[in-house]
TrEMBL record:
TM annotation in the entry: 36-55, 153-174, 234-267, 279-298, 353-373, 380-398, 418-438, 450-472, 492-519
Compartment(s): Cell membrane
Main subcellular location: membrane
Mode of membrane association: Multi-pass membrane protein
Any one Pfam family match given in the protein's UniProt record, by short name: DUF2142
Protein name: Glycosyltransferase RgtA/B/C/D-like domain-containing protein
PANTHER family, A to Z: MANNOSYLTRANSFERASE YKCB-RELATED, MEMBRANE PROTEIN
InterPro entries for this protein: DUF2142_membrane, LipidA_mod_glycosyltrf_83
UniProt keyword terms in alphabetical order: Cell membrane, Glycosyltransferase, Membrane, Transferase, Transmembrane, Transmembrane helix
Amino acid sequence: MGDSMPSVAGGHLDSTTQRRRTFYDSGTEGRVRTPISVWVLTAAFVLLCATWSILTPQLLAPDESAHFSSALRMSQGFDWPDPGEALRPEFVQQLGGERAIPHDERSTIGELREQFPGASDTLDQMTQHPPPYYMIAGGLIAALGGDDLRWDVALLSMRLLGAILAAPLIWLTWNTIRRFTRSERMATVAAMVPFAVPGLAQMLGVANNDTPAILMGSVVIWLAVRVLTGDRRLLTLIGLAAAFGLAGLAKGTLISLAPLVVLVLFFGRGRPAQLGPRIWQTVWPLLIAFVFGQWWWLRNLALFGTLQPYGYTLSDKQWPAGQGPSLPDYVEEVWRVTATSFWGWFGRVNAPLPQILVDVLTVTCLLVVLVGIFRRRERIVDALIVASPIAVSLLLLFRVSWATYADTSEFRGLHGRYFYPVIVALVALGALGASNIVREAAARVAFGRAIVIVSTFMSFFGLAVAYVFFYASDNWSAWRSGVRPLLDMASTPPAVTLVVPAVYGVLLLVGAGMTWIAIRPATTPEASVPLVEAAT
């Protein structure tokens, strides 16, 4: 593999070399105690997602009306029509007026069904996806009261389900980066990084099937990195197989994980030396994955002739005579839409972060990853393997969006949320790149603290941008005027609407402070632990 192991002098390993070799090759690096800061940040992140659940106006998130419609259909019993055949309930199409009135005056689902019976003419495209998320969400709505629930409370329950599913993300990020970089301190810093992407927290706080996709994608990447770095215990391999299988029942975008799973099984450390056993140790986890859920794609091929059928009718718009697709225009739109919606374009792409901020963040991250990975080549193979699901996600985005643009002149399928399921891989590559660039002890501490500051700022700033846009008419000088509209429109009681963000803010500041202290400069040589250990 691309990571050269330390040399052996005189046939003996020094203690540091022995620890690193054991850490990688056995897969049993001993009991690892999770830092308290990680648990504090986990609580803060869940409450951050819950804050977005409260703050985001109802149905003003990507495809939220369709996700809500499918969950409501499931709340009345299993009903999953073929793609392109499901219709949204008429009352869901009429909820715009209800959203504008105070939350305690809104109608129940049953009242709305009576007032607006039957189905609308609008397609519910979500039946192109596997149904488990909607079964869980629909079951939750039914358990809480079904038609007796206020419609916005039913939607809020779906949103908070996403916040709960977000709970493992901070720990998974910390543990993956610890394993991949072999650095406790880099891992501690990396636990702050999800806060730097406000769009991620918003998506985890609304009703959307991206929430289980983000969870399953993160779990698969965590286990894949363990296998890549030498953990070939039976339980780990079965866990990777099961997680990848269940990912097949989450969302089609997770098909991008397939190359990663195959590559870590075939090329990861500790692989069998002989080709035959190595192939078998690659194949049998894939068979388990098929049983756990990857069969869904074979079902689609058998029924519809494609892996991912369309759930809606494509636009019949065509280019004007003498005009056609422009590559420069397409590249400019990808940069503007994909990057901005990744970092944060809140609502249904209503309230974007400032473009200059998006550009600086995007360029900086790209430079850290690309320059850092290729600066020191000991880990380049590992990096390329971890980058494989990101590359596949990017290729899929280009393929679908360019085809739509070339055929219809419309830009579709460019949202940055499609990269959230591989967010842990993105953080891992950034951590490895930074470890290769930032070598001096003082610079490492400064780098870690810069991450803490930027992540904390971005988390608060994203909420502020959305709040001012949705509740203060996008007028920062009139921010106080948005408090009353927020308290009226939010689905929660006023006390909850105020307390949840406040507790999140306190926990984030505490977690950031603990992280800041954890990477403080060592006072004695014996206590010195580098922010990032050497990659050799």
